[in-house]
Every structure is written in C-alpha cells, then in structure tokens.
Design brief:
Layout lengths: L2 E8 L7 E14 L4 E7 L8 E5 L4 E13 L1
Antiparallel strand pairs: 1-5, 2-3, 2-4, 2-5
Length: 73
Amino acid sequence: EEKDIQIHTFPPNSQRARKIAFKGLYLSIYNKQTGHYATYIDNESPTTEYLEYDVPAGYSVYVRGGSVYFTVL
C-alpha cells in the first residue's frame, strides 16, 4: 500500500530485511547502533518515479516529503 508522508520514521525490524520503494525528497536508511547509513538521499526537487532500496534488518527508515511502500523479504 502506497503512503504519502510529510515526515515519518519507520522503526527497525530486527528479524527481517525489507525493500522500500521511494519517490520524493528525502530518504535515510540508518542503523542507530552502528551509525551506518545504508542509503542517504536528499533531493533538491522530488523524484517522480519509485526506486527500490534495501533495508537491512535492524535499520530504521526516515522519510520526508515522499511516498513509499515496503516489501518484506
């Protein structure tokens, strides 16, 4: 299910990796425990097509000004 988001943090799933499809301004896939960014995107203007990104188990997803949907692997 597609979600339009102004600002939202999706908590980590410690059990499963996921895929996220994103279009918009800002996407961060981050592991708070290790300080590692798997993905960091900060667009000046919103993208208009969905692109898929891997979300490893244990990583949070922060979205600002975009639309997303997840696929559980």
